[in-house]
Amino acid sequence: MSVPIYYLFGKYVDPLFGVFTGAVAYYLWENHPRTAPPQGSHLADLIKWRFTKPEDRPKHPDWDRIKADLQQMEKELAGPGGQTKQW
């Protein structure tokens, strides 16, 4: 029994085409301005962070900046009268 040539062609080319399509889609997702992840969250940055030694990583997040952002958000939600908005 002979296997048709188009079957063998599809058997080997389809997986390569799928991998190529997935790689191009991921590249576009990472680099398109509308869908790009925030700075520092790209795949290369995450891999670099993962393979750094734990003692070289920052020990604590920047709590002062986080607190300032939270206070700014609370002021914005409070409105002009100082009362929190009721949703």
Automatic annotation (TrEMBL):
User: InterPro entries attached here?
Assistant: NCE101
Transmembrane residues, as ranges?
12-29
Keywords recorded for this protein, A-Z: Membrane, Transmembrane, Transmembrane helix
What's a BP term from Gene Ontology annotated to this protein? protein secretion
| The protein's name | Non-classical export protein 1
For this protein, the record's Pfam families field holds: NCE101
